[in-house]
Amino acid sequence: MGQETSDLGAIFRSARHALRLKQVDVARAVGYSPSAISRIEGNRMRVDLDTRLRLAQVLRIPPERVSGFPVPAGPVIDTVVNVPMPNEEDAMRRRTLLGALAAGASAVVGTGTAAASPAAAVDLNDVLFRLPSADPAPLQALAAKTASARQAFTAARYNDLGNSLPGLLAAAEATRESAAGRARQQANAVLARAYVLASELAAKQHSDAAWVAADRALAAARASGMPIPVGEAARVLAITMRRSGNCSSAVRFLATEAAALDPAQERTGAVRTTLLLTAAYSAAAGGDRATALTLLDEADETVERRPQAPGGLFTVDATKTQAAVYRIGVHNTLGTPDEGVEIARSLNIGLMPTAERRARAWTDTARMWHTLGNSQQAFAALSHVEQEAAQEVRRPALRALTSSLLYSPARVQGLREFAVRTGAVPA
């Protein structure tokens, strides 16, 4: 990264001040929380290229200042003039910009469930700290309700999941508190899965609620005494650690949890593989290539020995295809996307079991082609994301990737319509 990008936080902060915007205004426009914007401006949170370009678009910063390489300016990206403005001009400029941001938000949220972004359904911060009152439920009924919520997540119906979470979490908490002995352990396991879902949804929203949900998930999982819930909760907690910039801590935490699981056993082995894959990506995010590739190789060996995955509420996708997708993501993160090309070409994403997983695989493929400068292939992959999961493609990270493609030198037929349809740019 060049000198222009050595202090990203100062660049973003200066541009925001020049536009007289509050952190909450920027947060709303890019789908982050205000505290995340604060950490970005203080250089306490790592942000990938897609996010930097999205912030640059919102704050009207020349994209080359935050990307480290020249990016042609589009109709929305202009240079910020860091000079005092008269009050009337200042107010008019701010109203104009906020109007444009509101228009973009309207394009994202829309008026129906299919058009809404994951952030539109529910504010998870409110949910986690103000659960509704609920009565205890029979364990079988609670497990069925949790399984239904998990199905909403794997089908990428994030609004449905968000709307079901308050009642689910409240019922699970009440059930756990009223239970004793073995029933309490089982209730803790169900509660852990519910909080894992909450953390996964919050991560897709770029919400700080992911931390709270993951911490509660791990506490409930440990209270259950069951290794598989513990492993799943550890995975989502490590993801929140990585997203906040604590990559090495995430790797150490995951390695410790993985070491406690027996790779020879079918059920614990599958969870161990997912922990190794997540640790590999976390190491890559921290720039540790050797550790990332070593962890990937170890995960591959585990997959070869144990192709099955545990079932029930804690079904884990630990297959050769999933490991290959992680390898593409690791190479993208390490800055060596060319090493993922052959993997992507031999990959059968259709073999992946859920819409959410298939959409994530196509997302990693899109990022790979975009970084390699192949806009046509990147857009084709993004189109697959939309086909698999309409709400997935409207997430902040995907909108940023679409926006970055739109303002790249290549002109791709259908891309602008796609960008408008998915909320990456205002209509």
TrEMBL record:
| Pfam hit, one | HTH_31
Q: What InterPro entries does this protein's entry cite?
A: Cro/C1-type_HTH, Lambda_DNA-bd_dom_sf
In this chain the HTH cro/C1-type domain maps to: 12-66
What CDD domains is this protein classified in?
HTH_XRE (cd00093)
Q: Which domain of life is it from?
A: Bacteria
Any coiled-coil regions, as ranges = none
Q: Which SMART domains does the UniProt entry name for this protein?
A: HTH_XRE
The protein's name is: Helix-turn-helix domain-containing protein
Q: Which organism is it from?
A: Streptomyces goshikiensis
